[in-house]
Each structure stands twice: as C-alpha cells, then as structure tokens.
Predict the structure.
Amino acid sequence: MKIGELAAQTGVSVRSLRYYERQGLIAPLRQANGYREYSALAVETVETIKLYLNLGLSTEEISGFLHCVLKNKEAFCAEVMPLYRSKLEEIERQIVQLSQIKLNLQQRMASIQQERLEAEAADNALSE
C-alpha cells in the first residue's frame, strides 16, 4: 500500500509516517519510481507505535523495544518494564511540580483578590 493508504487506515498523518520512517520505526520498500510501498504489517506496526505514544513514550524510547513487542508479547520484552517504571517516576515528578505550580497560582490569585478587597474598602472609607 502507498503512504496515503497507510495514513488513511491508521489515522496517522503522512508527515508522521515519514517521521516514523526517519526514526527507523517503519521501513517501507521503495519502488523504482521512489514511491514508498508498505506491507499489510505496517498497519499493525503503526497502531503499536500509536499505543506507546499514547503512554507518553517518545519515538526514541519506542525504537528500543518495538521490534521485540511486534514479535513477542510485552511480557517477554525485557526493555519494557524498566522503561515503564522510569516513565512513571517521571510522571510522578511532573505531578508534584504541577501541584506546586497550582498551589502557587491559587495563592497568588488569593493575594490579588485580598488586595482588591482592601483597596475597595479603603476607597469606600474615604468616600464616606
């Protein structure tokens, strides 16, 4: 199948498919005219890539174990669990950081609201 057909079947843009190719995640055959020709297995490969991207993994991380998971179950790919643990730790750190940012914003908003109330009270006291 051509790249446009693969894009239509997987819901992935042609641009992304070309990026996956540059990253070594998919490997089409090249016809004499230079067109890319994908096998039927390319659909499964792209769907697998989408799954891992949705888990927050980068294409570089995916390339480290994609070949294994396409041939075996995840449970039999030694690279997967350490990567999942690392990604989970990264997400936990981000949650802590975002929680602190949220608290900082809430405190700043409360401070601004308090300043407004105090300014309005002062204005009211002067006009009485």
